[in-house]
Amino acid sequence: MAFWNQKTRYGLFHQADKDAKKYRSDLLVVFVHGIFGSPADTWEEPP
Q1: What is the 3-state secondary structure (H, E, C) of 14-33?
Q2: Averages of pLDDT over each 10 residues, the chain, 47 residues
Q3: Burial class (CB in 10 A: 0-12, 13-18, 19+), 11
Q4: Sign of the torsion formed by the C-alpha atoms of 35, 45, 3 and 17
Q5: What is the residue range of 14's domain?
Q6: DSSP state of 5
Q7: What is the model's pLDDT at position 18?
């Protein structure tokens, strides 16, 4: 779970570092997994 830094009852989340040089506040990326899949298994290694 190195990429995912928050695990909630709604799934896994990655909160960007707002102090990072390449931080983009205008960008939202959503990774969707299959209805019978698990987000941890599907997105173990995000693209």
Answers
A1: CCCCCCCCCCCCCCCCCCCC
A2: 80 88 90 80 76
A3: middle
A4: negative
A5: 1-47
A6: -
A7: 93
Strand partners, 12: 7
Tokens representing 14 are 């990655």
If one counts the domains in the chain, the total is 1
Distance between CA atoms of 23 and 7, rounded to whole angstroms?
Answer: 22
Report yes or no: 33 and 39 within 8 Å, Cβ to Cβ: yes
Q: What is the pLDDT of residue 1?
A: 53
What residues contact residue 39 under an 8 Å CB cut-off, 6+ apart? 11, 12, 31, 33
